[in-house]
Write a structure and sequence with these properties.
With 286 residues, the chain is of the alpha+beta class. Helices cover 37% and strands 21% of the residues. Helix 2 (52-61) packs across helix 9. The protein is elongated and about 80 Å long.
């Protein structure tokens, strides 16, 4: 079952710009992209899934304080992906056309491991994502797998890969990443930040441990381990971003295109089980 939650931003004859979708990602993605429920009924506007870079921006700059707090405190899945293979793993961004095609085609039929929702892709798709993605070798990933102690075993190499990863995931926007690091440090300055196994870490982390193809996730900024850790399994909360729609198109998402057309053409129509018939010569003005 898919649950949705709108943000608190004011809505004036338009959909909430951001909406949280909670549930199985294989069901959430088709619903988010189409705006339709399982029966084909239009229940929302069409949306695109939020990436890590977009989420970081919203955590920093969303106009409404309550929404910023909501975005900062919770863990979310995002539309960027991680694909494992025998040679290692590749991170792909939703801004990449191949990744976008893969993500947008996700459906229950693509699930190969239901517990953690691992999805299937072709060897050709993997190579295409690798070409424009961020590659991490198998040895590095195995040290991280299911054990945060691997961070300390990797030492300086972990920091190098981690820094390169965050630069990649934010598409080289050093200003955005710097502002985010400042936010993490400021938000956690009054608590014990010794983190994992009593050893102090900065507030950006990585934790990859689920084989196959998965959506990435990013923890809230107050996480007890890494502060803002990127991982590849766990919570299935995805944020959908709505495009600004013309008034007519938005009305169609609420009452249906057939009703709007009937109103334009002054013809009878049925809505919620009631038949409405236009009447001429009646003045409703006081």
């Amino acid at each position: 079952m898919i649950k949705t939650e709108i943000f608190q931003e004011p809505v004036k004859n338009s959909p909430s710009r951001l909406q949280i979708f909670s549930g199985k990602l294989a069901e959430v993605i088709p619903r988010m992209l189409s705006g339709k429920n399982d029966t084909g009924e239009i229940v929302d506007v069409k949306r695109t899934p939020m990436s890590i870079k977009q989420l970081i921006y919203e955590r920093l700059h969303n106009e409404y304080q309550q929404d910023r707090n909501n975005l900062r405190s919770r863990d979310f899945n995002v539309s960027d992906i991680m694909i494992f293979s025998e040679e290692g793993g590749v991170v792909g961004l939703y801004s990449n056309a191949v990744v976008r095609e893969i993500v947008n085609s996700v459906s229950p039929a693509k699930v190969i491991k239901h517990g953690d929702e691992t999805f299937s892709i072709s060897a050709e798709q993997y190579e295409a994502v690798k070409k424009g993605g961020f590659f991490i070798d198998r040895e590095f990933l195995l040290k991280l797998a299911y054990s945060q102690e691997g961070v300390y075993e990797l030492g300086a190499r972990y920091k190098k890969v981690k820094d390169e990863f965050w630069e990649f995931i934010t598409e080289g926007d050093k200003g955005l990443l710097g502002d985010y690091i400042n936010l993490l440090n400021e938000s956690n300055k009054n608590r014990d930040s010794d983190g994992v196994y009593g050893k102090k870490l900065d507030f950006l982390g990585l934790l990859f441990n689920q084989p196959g193809f998965n959506f990435l996730g990013i923890s809230g900024i107050y996480s007890s381990t890494f502060g803002s850790c990127v991982y590849n399994n766990g919570h299935h909360n995805l944020i959908g971003i709505a495009k600004k729609l013309p008034a007519r198109e938005y009305l169609e998402t609420k009452v249906g295109a057939d009703v709007v057309t009937a109103l334009d053409e002054k013809k009878p129509f049925k809505y919620n089980g009631t038949i409405y018939v236009p009447v001429q010569g009646v003045n409703l003005e006081k």
